[in-house]
Amino acid sequence: LLSVLQSLCGANLIEVIGGSVAGLSAALELKKRIHDDVVVYEEHPDFGKPLKCAECWVDHYGVGTPPEQFIKYSITHLVLKLGNRQMAIKTTGSYGMWMIDRPAYEKWLAERCEEEGVLLESGRRVKISELEGDLIVDASGCPSEYSREFDVPVRASRAVQCRAEGDFSQLAGKILAEPSFDFIGYYWIFPISNDEANVGIGELDGNRLNLPKKRLEQYVDGLNAKPTSWTAGWVGTVQHHPLYIEKHRIALIGDAAGLANPTNGEGIAEAIISAKVLAECAARGDMRSYEPLLLQILRKERRFWKSVLCLWKALASVRGLCEKII
Ligand SMILES: Cc1cc2nc3c(=O)[nH]c(=O)nc-3n(C[C@H](O)[C@H](O)[C@H](O)COP(=O)(O)OP(=O)(O)OC[C@H]3O[C@@H](n4cnc5c(N)ncnc54)[C@H](O)[C@@H]3O)c2cc1C
Questions:
Q1: d(CA 39, CA 122)
Q2: Residue bearing the CA closest to ligand 1, atom 33
Q3: What angle do CA 288, 290, 291 make, to 5 degrees?
Q4: CA-CA distance, 120 to 44, in Å (whole number)?
């Protein structure tokens, strides 16, 4: 029905799969820039749920400060824990970091989309093959709807997280990351308040970690904390195919495009920036420049983090070798 109305009105139809940070940001930017009809499909009945995120917003790529009302606190230090040693690194360097209320932020994005005239269809899981839009934006996260429907093999990072109650007062204003050399990944503690934190474990670029929940349970136990809810998900840290497939009129953004940070799995900033660049190119009617323009923006930072990952893997294999010899 929507596409019949479209053709009668002469406007283009843009269909967005996924109503999380990437999809909602793209829909909002698109609606602000062009007068086409934009519809977002989200399989869950509510926007902002379920939460698969430790809720740390990093001001990469000029995405700026999160809206003030969603900031829980500004992160002053990243505490790196290696064995029994801890090193607190000031985060007030080149970019800021904040703990946010991500579900509330996404609900707000959805409300803004509606105010701008974006059509939101929640509780509806769609397939690319059933869509008829002039542009289809795949913001379905990882693994993407595109990779599922076109059978593209996906390598990604895996994360498990719980909300835990305990005494986190020593980390006030800070977040903690504890890299592992048994597997390539890390544990994290991102406090929400003095007595609540998002505690997680992530394996980077792997798919091999068999018992992440069990490991995390032991880790949380060691903190004398009590898990109150669990979540798990894939993080799109590897790009598998072009980001604009002209033949099918599909553009991929956020985790669906494999843009999350390959070393720490952060992907909020990448989701937002890819949404902005996509909208800019769509507004110019030049979708072919979407991928080169976006990758140019991300290149320097991704190159740095990929080198860190290589170094990490090298150190882990040297350590493994030494252990075998000893
Ligand atoms: C445990 C965990 C902790 C993390 N912590 C952080 C962090 O602290 N900071 C950070 O920057 N990043 C973090 N990340 C990564 C971050 O959450 C992702 O990079 C980010 O959510 C990507 O946003 P997105 O919109 O691309 O995809 P997603 O947030 O995955 O959203 C995809 C949406 O599409 C919907 N969908 C999927 N398929 C369909 C379909 N066929 N039809 C309709 N709807 C569909 C889904 O329901 C979902 O709402 C974390 C990830 C995990 C798993």
A1: 10
A2: 18
A3: 95
A4: 12
Q: Three-state SS for 305?
A: helix
How far apart are alpha carbons 162 and 200 in whole angstroms? 6
**CA distances from residue 225 to 121, 189, 220 in whole angstroms, order as listed:** 39, 11, 6
Sequence-separated (6 or more) residues with CB below 8 Å from residue 141: 18, 20, 22, 233, 234, 236, 254, 255, 256
Establish whether residue 262 lines the binding site of ligand 1, counting it when its CB lies within 6 angstroms of any ligand atom: no
CA torsion 126→56→100→78, rounded to 10°? 180
> Which residue is listed with tokens 């990469």?
60
- 266-313: pLDDT as tens digits: 999 999 999 999 999 999 999 999 999 999 999 999 999 989 888 888
- C-alpha pair distances (Å), 39 with each of 15, 26, 100, 128, 169: 5, 11, 26, 14, 44
Is 185 a pocket residue for ligand 1 (Cβ < 6 Å)? no
pTM: 0.94
Q: Taking Cα atoms as reference points, which of 314, 322, 284, 278 lies closest to residue 297?
A: 278
